[in-house]
Amino acid sequence: MPIAEGIPAPDFTLPTDAGDTLTLSSLRGQWVVLFAYPKDDTSGCTVEACEFRDALPRFDASKAVILGISPDSVKSHVKFKAKFELPYTLLADEEKSVLQAYDVWKEKSMYGKKYMGVERTTFLIDPKGQIAKVFTKVKPAGHAAEVMAAIT
Fold it and tell me: Cβ contacts of residue 137 below 8 Å, gap of 6+?
């Protein structure tokens, strides 16, 4: 079933950059911003991650939790987080099971070569655990403000 607004967000448990695990359903009662991005420390992903970092006080005021997810390893997330002082949790989905469940692990094409990768997408999950909004084909610049506007 495709991910759509109004359906329950698929639950998951994944390793975090802090060396523990996080289960999505443990965050019920809060807004959750789950942003799926292709790769740590690449230009677009860095812009997006830093915009969420800079907007964090506004998300905190709305009692929203920000989670970044990519197929990178915990070790890669630790370096990325430290380099850009990212104050929120990064989730490592090396098996790509959650990325597939959220239908963002897709065939992509660059310079005529086809490959599998993450289609940059953000899911806004409401306090009841439902998908409130899906942002597809995200442009990194200005995206955090766009997500914040959907919460308020």
Answer: 119, 120, 121
Strands 121-125 and 31-36: antiparallel
pTM for the structure as a whole: 0.94
In a domain, 7, yes or no: no
pLDDT of 57 over the 60 cut: yes
Q: Do the domain assignments include residue 97?
A: yes
Query: CATH code at 127?
Result: 3.40.30.10
pLDDT tens digits, residue range 13-24? Answer: 999 999 999 999
Could you list the residue range(s) of the whole structural domain that residue 78 is in?
A: 30-151
Q: How far apart are CA 94 and CA 96, in angstroms?
A: 5
Helix (H) or strand (E) holding 22: strand 21-23
Question: Helix and strand tally (H, E) in the chain?
Answer: 4, 9
Gap between the Cα atoms of 21 and 24, Å rounded: 10
Q: What is the C-alpha to C-alpha distance for residues 96 and 70, in angstroms, rounded to an integer?
A: 8
- Give the catalytic positions in this structure: 45
